[in-house]
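Task: fold both queries, return tokens.
Query 1:
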Amino acid sequence: MPRLRVNGVPYPIRAILFDKDGTLLDFIYTWGRWGERLLARFSAGLQARGLAPLPEDLSSLWGTVHDENGSIADYDRNGPLSMGTLGDLMSILTWHGYRRGLSWAEAKVLAEACRQDADGMLAQSRAAKALPHALEFLARCLDAGIAMAVVTADETVQAVTQLEWLGALPYFSAVVGTDRVERGKPFPDMVALACAELGVNSREVAVIGDTNGDMRMAKSAGAAVAIGMAGPNPAEAIRLSEADAVIASYAELTVEADE
């Protein structure tokens, strides 16, 4: 059986399941732009209806960190934008519209229109950038005979599209979005479906993600190891308290083919 070596510890595995956003692709590069566009349009929509705009401090809305210009510069790895589904985000936005005086139906319509606008901007710009060493690691896994799948809180169609933008889609034998399971993260459903489509047992897979939701999903499914992707900021490693191992980049992982 191939082995994945993490911090010097070898794990015999047959497959690796990857989260997408913040694990394979640069989260802020894609979803920061999308979020800024959506929130700006929604706030402008409120003002056009004679209502108060969204608050200047948007950090508590979706769990984002904003710079002095109001741009999304970072995100809470355990917050709604990183762990929630699109439906979760739209519900939060709809709630804020309702609180400002719209009916729930009006707020939903406005949120959906703003989402479509942000989606259109994202599709036109094809804003996706792989994390450092990610594509090289995928190539090494393929050479070592390790099967791979993506398990993401994103919708499956959107996930497939963004993997195509990255040039990473051919590496994966399965893509499981939140719309393909009854329960999303942190429940084990995505792992179970991905393992079924790869033809492996959950005890034979590693899960790599950037949130504790990913780690909980892995452990509830009985995965061999749950690896947290913290990135270069040491503070993020502390937040991944439920990971079996934490890495700053894919350069810290090695794969060994079955002898």
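Query 1 returned. Query 2:
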Amino acid sequence: MKLVIVTGMSGAGKTVALKMMEDMGYYCVDNLPIPLIEKFAELALGNNQGLSNQVALGIDIRSGQELPLLDKILERWRTDGIPFEILFLDASDEVLLKRYKETRRNHPLAGAGRIDEGIKKERECLAFLKKQANVILDTSMLLAKELRHELEKIYMEDGTYDNLFVTVMSFGFKYGIPADADLVFDVRFLPNPYYVENLRPKTGEEKEIQDYVKQGGTADIFLGKLYDMLDFLIPNYVLEGKNQLVIGIGCTGGKHRSVTIANAVYEHLKQQKGLGVKLYHRDIEKDNKRK
């Protein structure tokens, strides 16, 4: 079980960091009331609720007057041997002030006063957490993708967690191109089983259809070139900080050719480490429903 307390200065990127850690497989809870933290940790450590074995708790100045109670909780956890880490996100006062002005939001401790006074008060309130932090990340000069890279280096053990989730989706052009597709490939140039009466009711999930689509070797040549492209693109998408990729494979009705090719792409991508891969045949049953 891994429990990470994600905290830090307002405007330093804590919410963004939690979203990134969620993409890495962490079960994330933000702004949980301090009195509930011990009970939540007990449930998480016991894994009684089917939670991930990696949990991140977002705690910050919004906890108000309850925040000092956290110091005592952390002391008890150390005494009881409960494993936890503290990630503290920080940035310079100048950068924090600039971010607040850009977003036109007021600092939670500034009230009707000046933002820089609120920042000063917050530093004083969070000083005990920064002092105990296992990791302090200064985000003053970090882009979002650079922050993700730093978090992955720290919290993705041995690269065993998915850093990119790929959905391979077959579809029919006559039902529309998927709105969320990042890459779309048209396979209507391949042999079409639709025009063979005894094959028409079958789908690309069946070997008879797959053999028909792959006859002549054109499909295999196409797949080889597609694999090369994806093997090149995916690591570069990961470096750029992309965490979701939807690959659309389309034919006319989304039942034969696109299903066959999507299945092959899915099997290829499953072999790559560090990828989460999902297969989805959007239109495979639509022809049947229209009859």
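Both queries returned. Flag for query 2: The CA atoms of residues 108 and 118 lie 7 Å apart.
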